[in-house]
From TrEMBL:
This is AraC family transcriptional regulator. GO terms for molecular function: DNA-binding transcription factor activity; sequence-specific DNA binding. Residues 169-250 form the HTH araC/xylS-type domain. The keyword Transcription regulation applies. SMART domains: HTH_ARAC. Keywords: DNA-binding, Transcription, Transcription regulation.
Amino acid sequence: MTSAVAERAQPLPEQLRAYVTRFAVSATDGTPGEPYTYVPDPAVQLVVRVAAGGRPGALVIGPRTRAAYHASERPASCARFSLAPGAARPLFGVAAADLAGRTVALAELPGREARRLVDGGRDLTPEEWADHLVRVLPERPSRAEAERAGLLRAGVAALSVRPGLPPARVADVARELAVSERQLRNLFTDGVGVSPKYFARIDRVRHVLAHAPTSPWGELAAASGYYDQSHMTADFRALMGVPPRSYFTGRLPSTTPCRAARAARG
């Protein structure tokens, strides 16, 4: 199996919790190592990276709907901020769906906060960007943004794998949140970047990735919300490019580095 990108989670300032769910940093000496994997991830991410001897650059990475496998050329240091559901539009001026599968320079996005982040962050190290975000971002979202974010977070929680509970069905989540299925789909498209059903697929595969080393396949399929093991295998193959057994024994697709992927590396 390739290595996932090694990151160290950092304390998240309280002032950022309305916009960011996770802050992590990574660093390398710039020498090649093992190939590594970017697994599917529904979060929009702000990444500040520095190539060895270079200047910082801020990128926005949209939801990653399928795995990518890359050689191990990586920047010297990187800070990664995973955005909360619904935060992309108020911060970057675009819907999360417009970022799906893309890597975009922060300076190219139209949001006022994006411009302020770029203007004030040109000479900061990646690690200094947490405090920079605290200075630049509004103390709290507007009331309308907060209400939409609250609905999205509730929907995300209900559609995620939880201990002892299968993921909820989309129709049941819509009913619980007092919105139509179409409204829920529009909320997810704008604020998460993928449909509720596709979000649930990504979350189930991520659950398999996290628990496969310690769980029998059949039990893991049931705990992840699949009808049976064959359905789990088919979904895993669709998003990861190989079935679970192949992935965990290192039989993987060829690495396929590309310019956008190189820009996204952390």
